[in-house]
Amino acid sequence: MKAPIKIFSGSNSEYLAGEIAKAAGLQLGKSSITRFSDGEFEVCYEETVRGAQVFIIQSTYPPTDNLMELLLMIDAAKRASAYKVIAVIPYFGFARQDRKDRPRVAIGAKLVANLLMAAGVDRVMTMDLHADQIQGFFDIPVDHLYGSSVLLPYIENLKLDNLVVASPDMGGSKRANTYAKYLNAGLAICHKSREKANVVGEMTAIGDVDGRHVVIVDDMIDTAGTITKAANMLKEKGALSVRAIATHAVLSGPAYERIEESALEEVVFTDSIPLKSECSKIKELTIADIFAKTILNVYNCESISSNFIL
Questions:
Q1: Which CATH number is 77's domain given?
Q2: Considering the domain boundaries, does residue 33 fall inside one?
């Protein structure tokens, strides 16, 4: 007898989880969270998960409380005799800490991987990790999906002539090059120097953008300092229009104001992280369908490679 499938949501991803469950033709499972006055909280499943394959959907942003909630939900499912527990983490918090880039710092992404495995998770499903090598931090299967599955069709439907794909920094050049090849477009790279974390110094562009429509590609936008400075600089160099696409709308601090006041015509995100405010330039595309298909493929032991564009 095949194990039943059940989908649950952490408190940070309820809307997305509901859409994923709907796209998969399933009901979202019932769970609750009790919060104590000192900040401690307790999670509980309000229905049986015994013998089931349990998919828990939770983006870990903001990372600390949502990560802890996910760990507690994994532990609760294991202790309730779930057959398999799969953590579906559309946005993987702490992914920017994937290496020791200076002395005496932690490798946060590896620590999170250890915590998830210690909690008892059997599989992890995520999207557009900040660094692909984070998959190697796990000793369990990791399904790494790509936001390009919804972002690339959007760019194609714009039907822009003289298109150039730009990377906001040297680190994203591989991603931008992949998009450029798929779209048969030109490539530009913005070179920046950082004064400190989240603060951009000088910036220049490598590549011809004069008289071109430019789309800046990134995995996430945090304070929007880099992306807006890049857009303004590209516009000054003669770009006809500048757009940005990114998978994860972290958007902390003055991000919304910076986007609204920048030269960007629009910024397109997926709904991996719920938007905290409104902005006339921000457009959101859903990733519910791709996660629903992948969840069903994993449950039915089928290949998931057909779900990828890049």
A1: 3.40.50.2020
A2: yes
